[in-house]
Amino acid sequence: MQHELLLQHIARHISLTNEEEEQIISLFKSKKLKKKQFLLQEGDVQRQAAFVTTGCLRSYSIDKNGFEHVLQFAPPGWWIGDMRSFIHQQPATLYIDAIDDSEILLVQKTELEQLYTNIPKLERFFRILAENSLATYQHRLIDNLSLSAMERYNNFCQIYPSLIEYLPQKQVASYIGVTPEFLSKMLSQEKAKKS
Amino acid sequence: MQHELLLQHIARHISLTNEEEEQIISLFKSKKLKKKQFLLQEGDVQRQAAFVTTGCLRSYSIDKNGFEHVLQFAPPGWWIGDMRSFIHQQPATLYIDAIDDSEILLVQKTELEQLYTNIPKLERFFRILAENSLATYQHRLIDNLSLSAMERYNNFCQIYPSLIEYLPQKQVASYIGVTPEFLSKMLSQEKAKKS
């Protein structure tokens, strides 16, 4: 079931034979994370790529004043990672933890490299995946530089429609870059305007 | 010479035969841009991927108050684009123009797709390229959320060491997300601290 989600996800961009599917399944290992459990902490090296199958993970940094800044949420069907740490095998600057009890599939970087050799069309899959993420990050960065908090909140709702009811408001606030108090006040004012 | 830079750039990640190199060269067309000339404007669809060989380009958005927000600079050896527009062939939200007289190589999206079919290892090249960019964007986003303007300025100097003397200060200010006046004052204070 867990691997089924991964295979469906890959099938959106490339076609695999049964043998190739089995080879992939054999290398992606399942792991359970309890709510608040860490997958990665600052200073760790991220040695595995992570694909979320149930629950939800988030990546974030903690600044020198102790404030958390959420980079990404990963509900089922999403990948999550500190890309610089994973690519260059250097210490991470991000934390990744589970917002809820979650299950993920992990593949070692070395085994993923082996998969690229054995199944070259996976290069295509991960190219498309990386380019789509890149497009999202480009626009999030521009949004952060140029949009109001309310506009950033509306964009969040578009990117993560399934999370808006699910997440505690303080997590959403940390993603859009405002305090929980500010977000709460802003949403009340918006509601008042509409009523 | 222009194509030589592109081939050197590709050779950092994959090996091409002479025939493959020729095929690539035949599809990347040279274009000159004068200082301030646009490659892309908001609302256009980006139909070509762009690789800079001389000069410097920048991508930016203009917010509803008329302020520019620089997403990226592209000196020689860099790619530049509105990824969402290019991938999905939808209207761009970014502007791209030349900061200086520049030369670029352009390849049509449809021809790039053809190259992926003819030379599958290009998938690998562009996967690595996209993943590296993704790592850079992840950290820039976190930096924008969590670092001071001086720390963002120092990161800019690390990412673009060749540009720090070359660019007008207002461009750098727009990249790190402060006004030119603020940047100028901040750098004077920093200089005074060090002397």
Description of the structure:
By secondary structure, chain A is α+β, with helices and mostly antiparallel strands. Chain A is built from eight helices and eight strands; from the N terminus they run ααββββββαββααααα. Chain A has helices at residues 2-11, 18-27, 83-88, 109-118, 121-146, 149-159, 169-176, 180-194, and strands at residues 29-33, 38-40, 48-54, 57-62, 68-74, 79-80, 95-98, 102-108. In chain A, the strands form two sheets. In chain A, strands 1-8-3-6 form a four-stranded antiparallel sheet. In chain A, β4 and β5 (68-74) form a beta hairpin. The longest helix of chain A has 26 residues, at 121-146. The radius of gyration of chain A is 18 Å and the shape is globular. The N and C termini of chain A lie far apart (44 Å). The mean pLDDT of chain A is 94. Chains A and B meet through α3 and α5 of A and α3 and α5 of B.
List the helices and strands and how they pair.
Two copies of one chain form a homodimer.
Chain A: H1 2-11, H2 18-27, E1 29-33, E2 38-40, E3 48-54, E4 57-62, E5 68-74, E6 79-80, H3 83-88, E7 95-98, E8 102-108, H4 109-118, H5 121-146, H6 149-159, H7 169-176, H8 180-194
Antiparallel strand pairs in A: 1-8, 2-7, 3-6, 3-8, 4-5, 4-7
Helix pairs in contact in A: 6-7, 7-8
